[in-house]
């Protein structure tokens, strides 16, 4: 498919949808999702300003894709940390630390994952639903391995890493303080 960009040069994408998503993810690294527009994505991908509408019905459709791709990244970070740990308690600490780091180091991606207007609580997209289950399983299995596997305990642990990450990302305390708080809380049980 040949599309004209805003310049006089034609640009050909073998996979326009992927190019648009990649451009949007790059924008998300620099700005919050609330500032990412379909027009800005088109400009970043060097395609016509109408091109994104062939793949996203509207801006909310774009944000859903950003949330889904960001959730894949969060899950990968947590999974890698848990799998690299050499003991159950280390796995729980490492998985939670990876979650907190992602929230701070990729704050815009983290925010779009949990934006309730994008990922509606209780009504995630067909793509997001299994990603949420995967994260719950990663955290739940790590918690259960150290004897903290009840539903309430898992919810509390998830809430703790989420809160620590969110507060550190907002500047209420440093990443080091958030990681230390998480580690001491988990180690003390």
UniProtKB/TrEMBL annotation:
PROSITE patterns: HTH_TETR_2 (PS50977). Signal peptide: none annotated. Residues 37-56 bind DNA. GO terms for molecular function: DNA-binding transcription factor activity; transcription cis-regulatory region binding. Residues 14-74 form the HTH tetR-type domain. Keywords: DNA-binding, Transcription, Transcription regulation. The keyword Transcription regulation applies. Gene3D superfamilies: Tetracycline Repressor, domain 2 (1.10.357.10). The keyword Nucleus does not apply. InterPro entries: Homeodomain-like_sf, HTH-type_TetR-like_transc_reg, HTH_TetR, MT1864/Rv1816-like_C, Tet_transcr_reg_TetR-rel_C_sf. PANTHER family: HTH-TYPE TRANSCRIPTIONAL REGULATOR BETI, HTH-TYPE TRANSCRIPTIONAL REGULATOR RUTR. This is TetR family transcriptional regulator. The lineage of its organism: Bacteria, Bacillati, Actinomycetota, Actinomycetes, Micrococcales.
């Amino acid at each position: 498919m040949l599309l004209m960009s805003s310049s006089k040069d034609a640009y050909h994408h073998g996979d326009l949808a992927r190019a648009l998503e990649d451009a949007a993810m790059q924008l998300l690294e620099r700005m919050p999702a609330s500032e990412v527009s379909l027009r800005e994505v088109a400009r970043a991908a060097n395609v016509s300003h109408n091109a994104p509408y062939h793949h996203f019905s509207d801006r909310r459709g774009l944000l859903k894709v950003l949330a889904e791709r960001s959730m894949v990244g969060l899950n990968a970070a947590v999974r890698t940390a848990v799998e690299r740990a050499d003991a159950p308690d280390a796995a729980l600490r490492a998985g939670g630390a990876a979650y907190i780091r992602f929230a701070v180091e990729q704050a815009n991606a983290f925010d779009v994952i949990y934006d309730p207007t994008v990922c509606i609580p209780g009504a995630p997209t067909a793509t997001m639903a299994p990603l949420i289950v995967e994260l719950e399983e990663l955290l739940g299995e790590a918690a259960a391995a150290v004897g903290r596997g009840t539903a309430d305990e898992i919810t509390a642990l998830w809430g703790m890493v989420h809160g620590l990450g969110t507060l550190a990302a907002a500047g209420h305390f440093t990443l080091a303080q958030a990681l230390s708080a998480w580690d001491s809380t988990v180690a003390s049980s």
